[in-house]
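SEQUENCE-TO-STRUCTURE ENTRY
===========================
What this section holds: a protein sequence and its matching fold, both as plain text.
Question of interest: how does this chain fold, as expressed in C-alpha cells?
***
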Amino acid sequence: MLYIVIAFLWWSILLYLLMGGADYGAGILELLTREGNRAGLKKTAYRAIGPIWEANHMWLIIAVVIIFVGFPDVYSLVSVHLHIPLTIMLMGIIARGTAFTFRNYDAVHDSWHRLYDRIYMYSSFITPMFLGIIAATAISGRIDTDATDFPSGYILNWFNWFPLSVGLFTVCLCGSLAAIFLAGEVPGSDEKWRFIRKAKQMNGLATLFMVLLFVSASLQGIPLFRWLFGNVISLIADVIAAASLAMTWYMIYQSRVKTSRFYAGLMVMSLLISVSYPHFPNIVLLKNGGSLSILDHAAPSATINALGIALLAGSVFILPALVYLIWSFAKKRSVVDEDH
C-alpha cells in the first residue's frame, strides 16, 4: 500500500506541473506581453483555462495531504526549514486566485482592474518560481538542521543560485506549456503564431537558465550531472525528453498544435522522472549528510493503509468527474466557435 501512496504523490505532482503549470504560464505570458496586446491574451486564456483553473489546485492539495498524513517527518522538516518560501508560494496562490476571480467577475470595470491584473500577473510568476525553489532546496543538501542562527537555518538554505536557477527554469517551463496550449485554442493563424513565438522565447530562456542551473550546481558541489546522466533510467528519460521536445516543435510546424501538447506533457513527465529517480527513496537531502526517505520515514502501516484506500476510493469519483469537466467545457467551446 505504501507504493500506491507514493505513486499517487508522484502523479499528483506531475499533474500539478502540467495543468497548474499551464495555468500559471498564462499569467507569465501576460506579464511578458505588451499592454496593448494583453486584452486578446486575457480573453483567450480565460476561455481556455478559466473553466477548470480551480481544479488545478486539487493536485497540489492531494500532494500536501499525502505528505502531511503519510510522511509527517518530511512535512514537519520542510514546513519548518522552508517556511519562508512556502509562505510566499501560498500567498501567491491565494493572491492569484483572488485577482483572477475579481478581474473576470467584477461587474464594475474601473481602475481596480489594473490592480487585479498586476496581482494576477506577478503572482503567476512568483508561485511557480518558489515552487521550483522549494523543490531544488529539498534535494540540494543545504537544509541545515543543526543551524544555530536564523539566516543559516531558514534563509541561506534556499536563497542561493541553485534553487533560484531552478525556480526561474520552472517559470519558463510553465510559460512554454501555456504558450503551446493556448496556440491550439485560437482560430486565427496570426494569433497562433504569436503564441508559438512566445513558446520559442520561453524555450530559449529555459535553456539559458538550465545552463545557469548546471553551473551553479557545479559551484555548490551538487552532483546534478551525475544525477541526470549517471544511471540508465535517468538517461533514458533524458533521451525521451529531448525527443519529445523535438516532436513538440515538429507537430507545431506541421500545424498539429493540439497534438504537440501530448509531447510537451511527455517531456515534462520525462524530466520529472530523470530528476526524481536518482534520489529514490530519499525525498529530502540534509547538509549533515543525512536524508529523509519516503520508505523509512513513512507513517505507521495502519495510517498508510487507510490513506491508500482513501486515495483509491477517491480517484474512482474524482478522475471521471475531472475528465467530464474538461470534456464538457471543451464541447461548449467548440459549439461557441461554430456559432461564431
Summary: The chain has a mean pLDDT of 88. Residues 205 and 268 are 16 Å apart (CA to CA). The two ends are 51 Å apart (CA to CA).
